[in-house]
Amino acid sequence: MHQVRSWVASAAVGFVRACVVVAVTMLVPAVWAAAVALGIWWGAANPWSWLAPFVLVCVGTLALSRPVCRTVRHLVARWTATVLPDGYRQAGPVTQMSTGFWWNGFGYERTSRDALLDQRWRIRWRDPANWRDLRFTAIAPLTAGVVAAVPVAGVAAAVLGFSQSALPARLLGGLGLVVAVAGAPYAWRPVRPVAVRFLRASAAMALADRVDELTARRADATVTQAAEIRRIERDLHDGAQARLVALGLALATAEKLMATDPDRARALMREARAGAATSLTELRELVRGINPPVLNERGLVDAVRALALDSPLEAEVGADGQLRLDPPVESAVYFGIAELLTNAVKHARASRARISLARDAGDTAVVVEVEDDGRGGAEVRAGGGLAGLRRRLAVFDGTLEVTSPAGGPTRVRMVVPCASL
Amino acid sequence: MRIVVAEDLYLLRDGMVRLMEAYGHQVVATAATGPETLDALLTWRPDVAVVDVRMPPAQSDEGLRAALDARREVPGLPVLILSQHVEQLYARELLADGAGGIGYFLKESVFDADQFIDALERVAGGGTAMDPAVIGKLLSAGPSNRRLAALTAREHSVLGLMAEGLSNQAIGRRLFLSESAISKYTTSLFGKLGITDDDNSNRRVLAVLAYLNSP
């Protein structure tokens, strides 16, 4: 009973959707049909009967292609949750020059209104996406439109057939009804693959998007790097450098006191020695934060093993062989794992962790998984540590996925593509 | 003692040679690269060698590898490793063969010349000497931590010093206690940890380190 009801519902919804698809995709062919009809109606003798339909076809197609594509994109997104980026050109800023004229990215105009209007038309007609839209309006009616028309045609056949009394016509009507009901849940569906295939951004548009993305990442990376360098400079300036000055002072004083007050000189020497030891400890911490020495000496896998040994968790490391990656990637992955282990101790209150490093099947990426038995609930929040880690990996086109249900366990998977394996 | 010094930075190498000569020891050879180190160790068979971890040609862990290779060739060849940083990972690799005669220290341990030379002599005698930083890491690490919870604070500090390779007498001096008091502590903590007590201080250190290393 329940199944029957849900099937009826899906058939009804499908029929409505099929009607909508037919209406949208057949809009431009309808304009063409109207133009042909107009020409026939005026007759071949009338000179306008050739020109007017031609103008109507051109203007109608050009004006309707973008709205049709926008509607299809919207419908696909709403029905199947497949979001297709439209990839239309975006208008740049319009700025007033010191001469008083307005620059809109193409030319100078006297007023801002003219500049905006000019910019709008230029962008609209120079957009390479127009060709893609035209192609789609030509292809859609012959593919998705035809299939979606099946239940509509079936219903039309049923209505026509049952309105007549002859038996063959009635049989035909019954057949139409069966076809309409059976096809209704499925007939609208081809609109999605067709849209995905023909409404995608073209290669040029995808490339432009990629350039934007990379520009943003470069800006990110340079800002992060500058901040790091500033931090290192500050640490050296306030720490080791200041201590070395104090050390020199103490030694100079001791030298002075050597002859007159050897006991105080000895005390100063001891102080100086302690100071040297402290500044070494500070420098060691600083170096560990810039580039851990084990990473230099042994590479990623052993460095992660050393990390696991130093962690208060019971951490086991699984790795296939010795992965040697590019130093920047190695460093990013190492610090990523270090941060995840710290999170596991601090936030998840875990007691065990498992770290695995491996190459993926195609040997094109390194896959790192960190799992802990903590209380879970970790998520990537804007401005949080995990978001920062994701950004740092994104510089290398790496990804970070977190699955962390409340109550644990937390699993974090980092994938960084690298050809140098 | 006859000593080999392997260190690539001239200033440090020279300083160490002078320090050892000031204490009346003889430096028979110096080395500045990994291969040279291995060569010097096998040629001279010194009473003890002081080896830096990071050396040319590759500036990775040449010194450590040379020391491990030499000890494979000559089991128990006494080596004291010096480094700018200490890693449990390296400590485990050095202790893996269980032959003793191993030291592992931060470079600044030479600031306290008396203690440094003392550790050097202990290693030369086949003993084990570990930097407090290594032991601190071992003692604070997770798995053993739960088992160490049974110890009192005093027993904990005795265990740490024992792991560094000190004898009961030396531990007593550090903690300002009598040697007999220390041996009481060691007996009780060995009992709690289930390690067999051993009079040979090197075997004792190795037992403690093995215990701390066990997952």
UniProtKB/TrEMBL annotation, chain A:
GO terms for cellular component: membrane. It is an enzyme of class 2 (transferase). InterPro entries: HATPase_C_sf, HATPase_dom, Sensor_HK_TwoCompSys, Sig_transdc_His_kin_sub3_dim/P. It catalyses: ATP + protein L-histidine = ADP + protein N-phospho-L-histidine. Keywords: ATP-binding, Kinase, Membrane, Nucleotide-binding, Phosphoprotein, Transferase, Transmembrane, Transmembrane helix, Two-component regulatory system. One of its GO terms (molecular function) is phosphorelay sensor kinase activity. Pfam families: HATPase_c, HisKA_3. Residues 328-420 form the Histidine kinase/HSP90-like ATPase domain. SUPFAM superfamilies: ATPase domain of HSP90 chaperone/DNA topoisomerase II/histidine kinase. The chain crosses the membrane at residues 12-42, 48-65, 136-163, 169-188. Its EC number is 2.7.13.3. This is histidine kinase. It comes from Streptomyces lydicus. The lineage of its organism: Bacteria, Bacillati, Actinomycetota, Actinomycetes, Kitasatosporales.
Automatic annotation (TrEMBL), chain B:
Residues 144-214 form the HTH luxR-type domain. The modification 4-aspartylphosphate is found at D52. GO terms for biological process: phosphorelay signal transduction system; regulation of DNA-templated transcription. It holds the Pfam family GerE. Residues 2-122 form the Response regulatory domain. SMART domains: HTH_LUXR (SM00421), REC (SM00448). One of its GO terms (molecular function) is DNA binding. This is DNA-binding response regulator.
